[in-house]
Design goal:
48% of the residues lie in helices and 12% in strands. By secondary structure, it is α/β, with parallel strands linked by helices. The chain has four domains: 8-17 and 90-206, 3-Layer(aba) Sandwich (Rossmann fold); 22-87, no CATH class; 224-235 and 307-420, HAD superfamily/HAD-like (Rossmann fold, 3-Layer(aba) Sandwich); 241-301, no CATH class. The strands form three sheets. It has a five-stranded parallel β-sheet with strand order 5-4-1-6-7, with helices on both faces. A five-stranded parallel β-sheet has the order 10-9-8-11-12, sandwiched between helices. Strand 4, helix 7 and strand 5 form a beta-alpha-beta unit. Helix 15 (275-285) crosses helix 16. The longest helix is centred in the N-terminal third of the chain and has 12 residues, at 60-71. The two termini are 36 Å apart.
Length: 425
């Protein structure tokens, strides 16, 4: 029995069901071929045939042959490259189980993916050697490489709706790409941008779908709890806030996100550039008359009280009984800014403080989790990590750390309590 008129749930594949949880293999390929970090991913995802393979105009083998030619690889070297490139990918079994539960409850379910036609064979088990084992989770599959259509084209959403047999307003669509979520909403679907199973559960529950909360049991031998800052200790700016600023400044959607948190921010967050260099970059990209004007803009953009006092209170209650750490993708000087803005001394509040810009590593690189564990003096299974971003949670879990994906203080601190087996709030 469905509620709130939702009768169908449609899910993306890459970035939702299948995610790269361990970036190490791709970084190893970068190093092997003497390339800058991220170059191998660009060689694949920015390849000139990427749309053609997703539209079914060329086969997967033809696509990868072209990637190999661009990188000077062929034969066994190319085969090894392909295998290594996907070595860090994992299927989210919990999410697949949730989809099966929805289907068993009477909801129509669909897989809607921009992917080569070969994904259809893997999804429907027609190739047992490479089967994903998810055929029983979906009533229908709509793969761009089989249809000659790809998201965000409205026609592929209409096709998926036709096959599941419900109108747009009776379906929910889940995808990790903002442009696809926006396009689905234009068609009339309820659309959710995927950022992990924890927030997805809550969003589906709000739509009236029968999605249970996870059943959690206390963990043995927990000795440390590791917190993120942005999104956990302090709430982040949301998409609506960024979009409003883009409208005020006359910018194309997505422009501000790329400028503030794109490649230049990533360089800042590992200490590869200075704060002054970053601000000058923002000034240049946004055509401010000076770096000082850009600095004023960022101060105004980030203004507002988003601090989570409940999370800080939990940190203080945990400390002493457990080792407590802060592990933050941040900028040089985060410590001073937090001390001034919130009157907090991070070295007093936490047993260890790891700032990505200070150590030259950033999440989701597994190396930064191992560094934090080493400084805490605990094994992975003795720690619980709280972060709002699914890629960071995925990577920590791959290292062997227990995780809580942070949604909000009430939800996520209750999950932490369940894992610890005692109250903390």
């Amino acid at each position: 029995m469905t509620t709130n008129n939702i009768q169908a749930a449609i899910f993306d594949y890459g970035g939702v069901l299948m995610r790269t949880v361990d970036p190490t293999p791709r970084r190893e390929l970068d190093r092997r071929y003497g390339l800058e970090p991220g170059s191998v991913e660009k060689a694949v995802f920015a390849n000139s045939l990427i749309d053609a393979v997703q539209l079914g105009h060329v086969s997967s083998d033809e696509f990868w042959t072209d990637v190999g030619q661009q990188m000077g690889l062929s034969g066994e070297d190319l085969a090894e490259f392909r295998q290594t490139f996907r070595a860090g990918d994992r299927l989210d079994g919990e999410l697949v189980a949730l989809i099966r539960r929805l289907r068993d409850a009477g909801y129509r379910t669909a897989l809607l993916s921009n992917a080569p036609a070969s994904l259809s064979e893997r999804a429907d088990c027609s190739n047992p050697a490479e089967s994903l084992g998810i055929a029983d989770a979906f009533d229908v599959t709509v793969i761009s490489g089989c249809e000659g259509l790809m998201k965000p084209d409205p026609a592929i959403f209409e096709l998926a709706l036709t096959r599941v047999g419900v109108p747009a307003e009776a379906a929910v669509f889940v995808d990790d790409w903002r442009v696809n979520v926006a396009a689905a909403r234009q068609v009339g679907l309820h659309a959710i941008r995927f950022n992990g199973l924890a927030p997805l559960r809550k969003q589906l529950q709000e739509l009236g779908l029968p999605v249970p909360d996870p059943v959690l049991a206390p963990l043995p031998d927990v000795r440390a709890v590791i917190f993120d800052w942005g999104g956990v200790m302090e709430g982040l700016t949301d998409d609506g806030h960024t979009a409003e600023w883009e409208r005020r400044m006359g910018l194309e959607p997505g422009t501000l996100r790329d400028i503030l948190w794109g490649e230049t921010w990533r360089k800042l967050s590992i200490g590869a550039i200075t704060n002054d260099e970053y601000i000058q970059y923002v000034a240049d990209r946004l055509s401010f008359p000076s770096a000082a004007a850009a600095d004023e803009f960022t101060d105004e953009f980030y203004a507002g009280d988003r601090f989570n006092p409940e999370t800080l209170a939990a940190v203080r209650r945990l400390r002493g009984r457990y080792k407590v750490a802060l592990l933050s993708n941040a900028w040089p000087g985060q410590y001073d800014v937090i001390r001034e803005r919130f009157e907090l001394d991070l070295y007093d509040e936490f047993d260890i403080y790891v700032n990505s810009a200070d150590v030259g590593l950033r999440k989701p690189d597994p190396a930064i989790f191992r560094l934090a564990l080493e400084r805490l003096g605990v094994a992975p299974q003795q720690a619980i990590f709280l972060d709002d971003l699914v890629r960071n949670v995925d990577s920590a879990r791959e290292v062997g750390i227990h995780t809580v994906q942070f949604v909000d203080p009430a939800t996520s601190l209750a999950e932490l309590e369940a894992l610890l087996g005692h109250p903390i709030t």
